Amino acid sequence: MKRVAIAGSTGSIGTQALDVVAAAAGRFEVMALCASESAELVSEQAKAFRPRLVGMSNPDAAKGLDLPPGTELVVGDEVPEAMAAECDVVLNAVVGFAGLPFTLAALKSGCRLALANKESLVAAGDLVRRARAGGASEILPVDSEHAALHQCVAGARPHEVARLVLTASGGPFRGRSLEELQSVTREEALAHPTWNMGDKVTIDSSTLMNKGLEVIEAHELFDVSYDAIEVVVHPQSIVHSMVETTDGSTMAQLSLPDMRLPIGYALGYPERLDVAYGRIDWSEVSRLDFDMPDRQVFRCLELAYDAGRRGGSCPAWLNAANEVAVKAFLTGRISWPAIPEIVESTLASWDGSTVPDLQSVLEADHQARRAAESQVTRRGAT
After folding, report:
1. For the segment 317-331, what is each residue's pLDDT rounded down to a tens digit?
2. How far apart are CA 168 and CA 150, in angstroms?
3. Is the entire prediction scored with pTM above 0.90?
C-alpha cells in the first residue's frame, strides 16, 4: 500500500485524487492533506480518510478546522516538509508559485513527486533539476499532456525521440479574432469546452498560457529542446499528446478527458489501476481534428517559448507576471486582451538574472510581480 500526501486537497486535482484513492480500495493510504483555505472541506476530508497529518498554509484558516482524533495539525511554513516525511508519494496540486516549497520538499525527502503544479518547473527549473540530480526522487507528471508524453516516451529510447507534440483544446475562444475578444467576460473565459478546472488554470487555457507553461515543463521533464516541442490544437481533447520518433513514427495516448486517469497513473506507477477513467466508446467518436494555434491572437504561447529559450529567471518572471495579470482579470481590473500585454510589458523589464538558489527565485518572483502590478495599476488609471 502506497502512502500518499496531497497538497492542495480542496482544489480540482486534489478532490479528484481523493476520488481515485477511494475507488482504488487498498492501494493507497492517505497520510497527509494540505490546503490554504476551505477549513470546512478539509475537515470533511480528514474525517473520511483519517490522515496522520493535516497542514494549513494559512494560520487564520486553521482556526476553523474540526479534525478527527489522532490527526496532527501543522500550520504555516513547516507544512511542506512535514507532509513529505514518511510518504511514498506527494501529489502537489497547489495552484501557482505557492506550490514550489512542496515540490522542493518532496524531492528533498526522496519520495515520488506526482506533479500537477507546473509553476514549480517553470519558475525554478534549475533548482528542481539539481534536486533531482541525486536520483533518489522521481517526478511523475499529473498534467494530462505530460502524463501522455511519459507513457509515449516509454516506447522509445532517448536518442530516438525526435519531437514532442502537446495538444491543446484551444479553450473557449478557439477560432475567434482579436476584434471579437476585446470585450469577453469573466464568465465566457471560464466556460471551458472540455475540462473542469480551477479558475486560474481555466483562464490560462483561454489565453494558451497554460500550454506555454506546459512547453517549458516538457522541456524540463524530458530534456528536449524547445525547437523539438510543438503545440497543436485538438478540440476534442481525446489525443492528450504525441511523441514522434526518428523513423517518422508517432505514438499517442488517447482517452476521454478525465483528470482521474493521469492522477491514478502518477500515484500507481509503474502499475496501472484497475479502475477505468476516460474509456473511449469508439462508436461515438466520429472524428479527431487538429489545427495549428493562432499565435497572433493567443500571444501568451509565443511569450512562453521566448521566456523558456532565454532561461535564467525569465520563466519565473513570465509565471509571476501571468499570475498577477490573471488575478487582475478575474477581479475585473483589466480586460482579457490585457493579460498578454501585461506579461509582455513585464518581461521587457527583465533584468537578465539567473536563479542559483531558492532566494534568487523568490526575489525574481517578487520583482516580476511588482513590475506586473505596476502595469495593472497604470492601465486602471487610464
Report:
1. 999 999 999 999 999
2. 17
3. yes
